[in-house]
Amino acid sequence: MNFMNDTIAAISTPPGLGAISIVRLSGADAITAANAHFKGTDLTKVASNTINYGHFLADDQEIIDEVMVSVMRAPKTYTKEDLVEINCHGGPYVTQKVLSTVLGSAVRLAEPGEFTKRAFLNGRIDLSEAEAVMDLINSKTNLQERAAVKIVDGALSKMVKDLREEMIKVIANAEVNIDYPEYDEEELTREKMALVTKSVRQKLRSVIDYSESGQVLKTGVKTAIIGAPNVGKSSLLNMLYRGERAIVTEIPGTTRDTLEEEITIGQLVLDLVDTAGIHQTEDLIEKLGIEKSHEMIQLADLVLLVFDGSREMTPEEQELLEATKNKKRIIIVNKSDLAPVLDLSVDHINISALNGTGFNELKEQIESLFLSGIENSSSATLLANARQLGLLKSTNESLTSVLTGLAEEMPLDLVLIDFNEAWKSLGEIIGENAPDELVNELFSRFCLGK
Ligand code: GDP
Ligand code: ZN
């Protein structure tokens, strides 16, 4: 595969209108290709890391835009290749025209994530850092952003590399013992292996624990809003969307019918389970019983169970109360602006979705269900993503087998198999021996121009 010899280009700023837009080129021909359409200083002769003023010309020498061109020469660039950034005057038309002008025999359009992929393939960043670049781009909350920055900065890679360095010494010793049993230092190696295994496990444990409870920060909390017809589920949803913004008085007919799937509440992203279902249950609850609700409850990490405080509970609602009792749930008694009729013995919060009261309490409860321990945790803790977490766990399992093997006095070559396995899966976190499919899949999830 020699695609790395290609020079690639893409618009690296988000689509739409902006003060400036950037067309980025990376590869051996980046500078000459940009220079071919540039009227100003000769870009092939300028020093690295300079910004050059001039005009960008179409094939017919017509001026497309007044531009500033940054020239960064390999290897000290984002991709480790020659990198050129053409800063144009915003506007989708101009930017697109600049891009299509540089594309040609020597330059092709970049695939999504290809700039970052090159940074990875050229060894400037490892896989965990590349993943974090994507997480950073997609961050929706401050906590997500902070967690990603730490990994972009290399904190996870450093931990992994340090642990592996300790482990490789043990592997080397064990191999000597296996090859030359007459050296008879095997006892020492076994002791050292047990020590290293325990210390590695301890370090992994804290990242695993933290990452498990923190996965909701990355993936969002799957949330189901459940309740009988007319209790105010749609109104609650609207209240959540409005969030901390000024409370709007309900204008009849303004309840949304098409709803986005995500709501950001403080540091959490709520991922709504089946928003269409919120409305469907209104009929289904009568026709099909609470089957649909059960399905939603099953899928959810969090159930918001809504009651109408201005009336008594129905038997169906009693059933919902029962069906959710083992779930993380918040029981919401709505319509607190009306005269209270419902008498509920379980913990609940009173809200009025109509005028927005109770929002803060609801937010606090949601946060305390999912963030307790996360936000205050030491800054040294790392939040691994699902792929990394899986590998951390299998590393941990292999290490458990190592300890069992050592305790049971198993032959060293057998114990070493598990130890090697742990060393390997730890390496996969930073992309050591990462299969092509994994790398391709990962970078294809990036957006264009990154
Ligand atoms: P859903 O069927 O559970 O989605 O309920 P809706 O959100 O569509 O609300 C049903 C009715 O209750 C509508 O007429 C709402 O205006 C009304 N409603 C919702 N929340 C409140 C509230 O907090 N107070 C009062 N008084 N009425 C509400
Ligand atoms: Zn509704």
Overview in brief:
The protein is 47% helix and 16% strand.
Written description of the protein model:
- Helices cover 47% and strands 16% of the residues.
- It is built from 15 helices and 13 strands.
- It has a seven-stranded mixed sheet. It has a six-stranded mixed sheet with strand order 9-10-8-11-12-13, with helices on both faces.
- It starts with 6 loop residues before the first strand and ends in a 6-residue tail after the last helix.
- It is α/β, with parallel strands linked by helices.
- The chain folds into three domains: 3-126, 2-Layer Sandwich (Gyrase A, domain 2); 135-216 and 385-430, Four Helix Bundle (Hemerythrin (Met), subunit A), CATH 1.20.120.430; 220-371, P-loop containing nucleotide triphosphate hydrolases (Rossmann fold).
- β11, α11 (315-323) and β12 (329-334) form a beta-alpha-beta unit.
- The radius of gyration is 29 Å and the shape is flat.
- The relative contact order is 0.12.
- The model is unreliable at 244-260 and 284-289 (pLDDT under 50).
- The chain binds guanosine-5'-diphosphate and zinc ion.
